[in-house]
Write a structure and sequence with these properties.
This protein is α+β, with helices and mostly antiparallel strands and 100 residues long. The protein has helices at 10-20, 38-47, 85-99, and strands at 52-55, 58-61, 64-68, 74-79. The protein starts with 9 loop residues before the first helix and ends with a helix.
């Protein structure tokens, strides 16, 4: 999800991600991208204590990574520097295992 809804449309976000995957569409089959309305962005920012400010077509912001289930339940939240990819994958696997 982007905090720059004016510029970061879902197709722009997808292309940005594909650049990191060498353009391999198969690796992106399970990803979804969304851009909130400005009103919903404010609500989300408050819910996750995200701070952002737009100035001169730039957005300065704090960072938070959250794992949210498809049923919109929050599973885990990490600050910018206190998580690893392995930890995030383990949390996702726990969610998937719990569904079975």
């Amino acid at each position: 999800m982007s905090i720059g809804p004016t510029f970061d449309t879902p197709p722009v976000l997808r292309n940005f991600g594909l650049a990191y995957l060498g353009g391999d569409e198969k690796k992106f089959e399970h990803w979804s991208f969304t851009v909130p309305t400005p009103e919903n962005l404010k609500k989300l920012a408050q819910a996750f204590a995200l701070i952002y400010e737009e100035e001169d077509n730039q957005i300065a912001h704090s960072m938070s990574t959250v794992l949210i289930r498809p049923d919109v339940r929050l599973i885990r939240e990490w600050n910018v520097s206190d998580w690893s990819a392995a930890e995030a994958v383990a949390a996702m696997r726990q969610v998937e295992h719990a569904k079975k």
